[in-house]
Amino acid sequence: MSIGEHAMVGAMARVSQDVLPYTIVEGHPAVTRSVNSIGMQRRGFSEEDLKAVRMCYKKLFVNKKLTVHEALEELRHSGYAENACLRRIIQFVETSERGFCH
Question: Is the pTM of this model over 0.85?
Fold first, then answer.
């Protein structure tokens, strides 16, 4: 199991899959609840980084019409495709061996 950078795992969470960078997971079993926007702001990430990560979160977790593969393709062709945070999330998902917390 891998926990991505700048992610936050809630206390007593039962994590059995990878945790995406810049997200918050909690629960039993652990599920991704939101973007770690406060943590990102405290660490000096730009507003552009936050927008890119929020858009990514919506594509992967809110829009249930898309498969993960379809969401990643849309992200690669979005206006944020060159954003380092977005590229890191895409790389993390593609190299995940256990899947990631939904």
Answer: yes
Identify which of 12, 10, 29 has the alpha carbon closest to the alpha carbon of residue 100. 29
For residue 69, the one-letter residue type is H
pLDDT digits (tens, 9 = 90+) for 53-79: 999 999 999 988 999 999 999 999 999
Averaged pLDDT score across all residues of the chain:
95
- 8-9 and 31-35: which strand pairing? unpaired
pLDDT interval class at 6 (50, 70, 90):
very high
| Amino acid residing at 39 | G
Name the token pair of 58: 């919506």
DSSP labels for the chain? --B-TT-EE-TT----SBB-TTEEEETTTTEEEEE-HHHHHHTT--HHHHHHHHHHHIIIII-TTS-HHHHHHHHHTSTTTT-HHHHHHHHHHHH-SS-B--
Amino acid of residue 82: E
